[in-house]
Amino acid sequence: QVQLVESGGGLVQAGGSLRLSCAASGRTFSSYAMGWFRQAPGKEREFVARINRSGGSTDYKDSVKGRFTISRDNVKNTVYLQMNSLKPEDTAVYYCVAVQTLAVYRTPPAWEYWGQGTQVTVSS
Length: 124
Description:
The chain is an all-beta fold. The chain has no helices and eleven strands. The chain has strands at residues 4-7, 10-13, 18-24, 33-39, 46-51, 58-60, 68-73, 78-83, 92-99, 113-114, 118-123.
């Protein structure tokens, strides 16, 4: 089992930046692939980014490529989402996710563990 706790959400102006953090419990963090999803009010949950166990492979939702960067620190048991050039369309609750065996990853059922979410609001 793994527990995930997100932090770093808040209110930011369009064009600004935020860094989300996700702290994971346990001693086997490096054995988990990690990712981020988001859900805006009235919208379905959508894939944002994922990173493999070693951190050497990443993938992103097309609309955030070049603006968002996912990274991980396997010593601190933490995954990050650096969000730059934020747009009002990025406003959502952001969820940290984890799974040990990952193949298809762009849909929620692929991920076993979910954090509680952190609110990101981008104002214009």
